[in-house]
Structure formats: C-alpha cells, structure tokens
Amino acid sequence: MSLAQQETAGINPRNPHGLGDPNDTTLRKVEVEVLIPKIMRDRARSELCPKEVADFEECCKASSIFMVATCRKQNSALMDCLSHWYKNEAFKEECKAIYLKERAEYRSTGIPKKHRVEKI
C-alpha cells in the first residue's frame, strides 16, 4: 500500500495511532513549563543531589514540628544544589531529549511509559 493509498484509507503513517507524529520535535507550552522541569527535578533529586536530599530528609525526620527552624542549613544546601542543575542549560537539553524520546515512543507505539515498563 503506497503512502497516498494509506492516507486516503484513513491511515496516516506519520501518525500511526492518532497521537501525533513521532518524529515531531516541537514542544507545547505545557511540555516546556511543566513536563520537562518535572523530569529535571526528578533527575536532580535522585541522581545529582542525593546527599543533600538525604541530609534534609534526615533532619526533617529528627526535628518533626520544628523542622522549619532547625533544618535551614540542609534546606539551603538542597536548594543550592537543585537550582545549580535547574540553571544548567546542558542538563536542560539532556532532559528535553529524554522527554522527546519518551514522547516519540508513546506516539509510535500508543503504549504509555508506565505500561511499557510493566510489560518488561
């Protein structure tokens, strides 16, 4: 079946599941302002600032109700580490590439990431 025949039959090879073109790299406002920063935040907390996160969590658990006053040093160290990575353009581009790869996989397969991970 040729490309023209597929399009007249209602099948768009560039949009196999009706979810958008998998090779499209344009980003919507919500992707730029919400979804990519979420990936940045999650990666920074788990991969790049784990010591600061652990120190802050430990202080909060030990201080309970007084954590606002007693954990300022740990909180500022955590915020410094996170803000360093949020301002890093190379890290931002890396997270953008991760997001675009995940979106392309979803658009080409029609299976959300959480379901792809469960099947493996």
From TrEMBL:
It comes from Drosophila arizonae. It comes from the Eukaryota. It is found in: Mitochondrion. This is COX assembly mitochondrial protein. Belongs to the CMC family. PROSITE patterns: CHCH (PS51808). The lineage of its organism: Eukaryota, Metazoa, Ecdysozoa, Arthropoda, Hexapoda. Residues 1-26 are annotated as: Disordered. It holds the Pfam family Cmc1. InterPro entries: Cyt_c_biogenesis_Cmc1-like. Its main location: mitochondrion. Keywords: Disulfide bond, Mitochondrion.
